[in-house]
Amino acid sequence: MDLSERKLKILQAIVSDFITTSEPVGSRTLSKRPDIDLSPATIRNEMSDLEEMGYLTHPHTSAGRVPSDKAYRLYVDQLMKGSDLPAENKQEISQRLHKDADELDQTVEHAAQLLSEMTNLVSFAITPNRSESKINYINFLPVDEGTVVLMIVCEDGKVTNSAIRMNSPYTEENLTLMSKVMTHNFKGRAVSSVLTDNITSMFESDMQALSSLAGSVVPSFMKTLEKMLNVDLYMDGYSNIFRLPEYSDIAKAQNFLETVTNKEQFTNVLVNRENGLAITIGDENSEDLKDFALITADYKVNGKLVGRLGVIGPKRMKYGEVTSVIKYITDNLSQTFEMEAPAEAGEAKALPEEASDNDK
Amino acid sequence: MDLSERKLKILQAIVSDFITTSEPVGSRTLSKRPDIDLSPATIRNEMSDLEEMGYLTHPHTSAGRVPSDKAYRLYVDQLMKGSDLPAENKQEISQRLHKDADELDQTVEHAAQLLSEMTNLVSFAITPNRSESKINYINFLPVDEGTVVLMIVCEDGKVTNSAIRMNSPYTEENLTLMSKVMTHNFKGRAVSSVLTDNITSMFESDMQALSSLAGSVVPSFMKTLEKMLNVDLYMDGYSNIFRLPEYSDIAKAQNFLETVTNKEQFTNVLVNRENGLAITIGDENSEDLKDFALITADYKVNGKLVGRLGVIGPKRMKYGEVTSVIKYITDNLSQTFEMEAPAEAGEAKALPEEASDNDK
DNA sequence: TGTTAGCACTCCAAGTGTTCGAGTGCTAAC
DNA sequence: GTTAGCACTCGAACACTTGGAGTGCTAACA
Predict the structure, then answer these.
(1) Distance between CA B39 and CA B241 in Å, rounded?
(2) Average pLDDT, rounded, for chain A
(3) Measured from the CB, is B64 under 7 Å from any atom of strand C?
(4) Higher-confidence residue: A340 or B77?
(5) A287 to chain B, minimum CA–CA distance in Å?
């Protein structure tokens, strides 16, 4: 049996009704809708069919129907009408994203904030992954007798640095030499590819003079490269969940919050999602997210690097509206980051002694 | 009327009972305690006095007594017995804090995590404020035709950088010169003091050759200095609040979460607390925190810079235990950061063209 | 043959009444 | 000053009732 026009219409009505009210919808309620001109009895028959086909479920005998994951999927794929954002929202988005747009991190954080405000859901955003970014140069800066700062700069402009505790004494000449040799060796190579190299052998062949330093430097270098791969995760709107009736049950709210505040695990989920606009509902997610729906979309930095932004909430979600907001924000972000090369700035700790020497 | 030995004992019993059970305590319950050898009636009389003196309240006629803020304060100041941490906890703390201790940020984050695990409360930690740190050197790195990276390094080792969009073209010589002049001008001065300077005038007098660049550089320089003053806030254990009976009321949980996830406001509260170990209870806090108790303590980096760490929870809190954990962790942190100069690393974005030139 | 009215049945939510226990305050006796 | 006793209060828990919203089924209708 496949879905007749009428069944689709009924299903559509049930899903959208349930999305707004979060109450199981009954045949009488439906028959009152102006767009549905059928008696409750007829609707009951259709609903019964739809239930058999797996689109609806039944909390208990005398309750209305509730959409299944399968129904949400159908709804999102076929039935949902995409809504266009009101002009004022569009304007607010552009305004707030362009203000202070010279710091990528901050702008992305603002975007997440904005998203949670506009959707009343929990939002998140991750910064782009740099594994395929190419190294531009490597620099060692003197700090104190025992410490230097290692600084790696990518072609796309990311600067990452770490302090290194040196096991053996160094001279500034050593550092300059090391900077040059390492830059020469790695310039133009992708971070991920360098990470799989056998760096120590390079030290043996090229840098005999420096081999005593290699022991301190190589592990830090690898660690710094790994650090470059980290993406930052911003989340916002945690307390929004309390507005949703599905989380008036404390245990559910707790479960949600626990899932969502496990940053490491959550980042992992986000990083591994499909590119572009991705909507996953219920059991399409991993086990721990099976009660939720996620919508994500990508933004681009300089037309290349890809970050991601989205929301998580109950399966009963205003897919149309939320999707529009997310798309509008990601498009806006991409546009913002395309025009200029925005700054993504951070900090590093070290104790330079006479660092301006480095300029001579 | 002042507090007799016996009243104190009763009050102590009430507070500690209420802290563990969160139920109003009645006279019968108290009289059953082995350390209190009085009949319920006597206890009732004493409780009645204590209520009159403002130490106890009464949810309704036939309920037990509940401690007031004043009672908690007395309890913390005089009655509470500080508990010593079990050796295994101490060991766990040292172990987990010393692992990966070369990154300050990360270690501080771990400390917050640890703290929330051990106390089952919401924990937080802020990194040290650098307003009195001295500038060590300032460096401009070439990126592309329109962009350079500004990098400011403090004596205490903090490195902060931003990308600057240049309004007019620059040469590498310009950058080197600018690095030198600015380093010369600001080396050894505290960040906060430089922030109050009139920098533009310096450009006019010292750097005529560079004045065309000043328009782009000065605002960014100030912004970067301000960025150095930002402290990072880490929080952990949000979902712990659901274990507490006081937050089984959804509205209260929501209120708590909203208060606590307002990072900006919360950071502000933390930064302005008293130094050392600080416990504030109920109405000793600002209006929005009046239903909570906060405990914070400081840790030191290199014996000087001061960061802060603590918990927030209901006024009914195991003050003794929690204080011990916090103190042990902050002591441990201070110790960790004293031995070595730990790395606090971050990142910056820029698009260097031929940056190794900077080394020659 | 598809649609609808009618009816018996189910189940939850909300309201009501009752009971029970833990608590208080007060008074009088020790 | 302390305690026992007693009347009283209040909320939590439980059972019970009721009403409404819903279903499924059957039979009648177009």
Answers:
(1) 37
(2) 88
(3) yes
(4) B77
(5) 20
